[in-house]
Amino acid sequence: MTVVSELGTPAIRCSGAGETAVRTTTGGGSGTGGVVLLTGGLGGARLAAALARALAPRDLTVVVNVGDDLDWHGLRVCPDLDTVLYSLADQLDRERGWGRAGDTFTVADTLGTLGEPAWFGIGDRDLALHLVRADRLRAGQSLTEVTGDLARRLGVVRPAVLPASDGPCPTVVVLEDGRAVGFQEWYVGMRAEPPVRDVAFGAGAAAPAALDALDGAAAVVLGPSSPVASIGTILSLDGMAEAVAAVPRRVAVSPTVGTHEPLSGSVAHHALARRQLLAARGGVDTPSGVAAHYVRHHPGLVDLYLIDERDRDQVTEIERAGLRLRFAPLLDAEGLAETLARLVG
Length: 345
Hints:
Strand order of the largest sheet: 6-3-2-10-11-13-14
Mean pLDDT: 86
CATH topology: Rossmann fold
Strand content: 15-25%
Low-confidence stretches: 1-31
Helix content: 25-40%
Number of helices: 13
Number of domains: 1
Largest sheet: 7 strands, parallel
Order of helices and strands: EEHEEEHHHHEEEHEHEHHEEHHEHEH
Shape: globular
C-alpha cells in the first residue's frame, strides 16, 4: 500500500511568550456558531476554499500554522499562511504546491550568484508580499492584522484567515545525529531526508483572534494536514487545545489515503516528511496510525474522524483506538467539503 496525502523534547518559547492571550474581536471570530478550520500545507489550503463554498452562508474561519515560518534575508516568510491565501485568491502554483502561479525567480537566482544561500526559493511576485508583510510588522501591526490586510489586497473576502499565533513560534527538528535545525531547513533544504529523533514545538501564546474564533464556534475541523508539523504546532500554543476542546463538534480529517499508485514530486516529499515526523513521535503514517497519534497526544480532543472509502481495512484499528469515524472522498476537495458541511451543520 502506498500512502498519499498533501502534507519528549522541551518546547521552545515564542517571542513574547508568557504574556496572557487576551481574546478580542480583532478579526475572524464571530462567536455566532461558525466553523473553524485548523490547517497548514497544501491539503488544507485546497480544502479551505471548498469548505467556504459548501458552508455558505455560514461563517468559516481558517486558523493557520505558523511553526513553519522563517526569517529569510530580513523578511518574515509564512509559507502556510501564504499557501492558504494564494489558494483562496486562485493564485496558487498548483503544480509546485507553493508560491504564486506564473512566478519567476530572478531575485532568488541572483542571490545564488552572489554566494547567498539558495536552498529556499522565493519567487519575484511572492517576494512582493513578503516585503509588504515585513514593512507592516516593522510598523507595529500584529501578524493577524497584516494577514487580514494582505487577504483584502489579494481579493479574499471570505473566509477569514488568521495566524495561529502573532509571535514567532518556530518548530525545530532534532535529527538523529543530534543537530537541531529549523523546520524549513530540514523540510526544504534537506528534502526531509535526514532521520528525525524528535520535534520541538515553538510553544507560546495563541493569537487572540484565533481563540476568539473558537470561542462560541459550533464546530472545529482539524484539516488534512500533517498531524505533527501543522496541527500539532497549532495545538501546542497556550490555550489552543483547551479552546478546541470546548467546541461542541470536533472533526479530524485523515491526511493520508491508501492507494497502490506510486508517489512522485511534491506528494512524495510531503509523505516522506509526514512519515518521518510521525515516526519520531512513535506513530505510523496510515489512517489508523494518525488516529492513534491523535488519541495518544491529544486524548479526548477528536470527536469524529474522517477517512477515505479506500481505507475500509483500517476501520477496526481506528475503532480500537476509540474514535468514531465516517467515510468521505478525501482526494476530492469539493466532495470532502460537502461531507464536512453536512457533519457540522
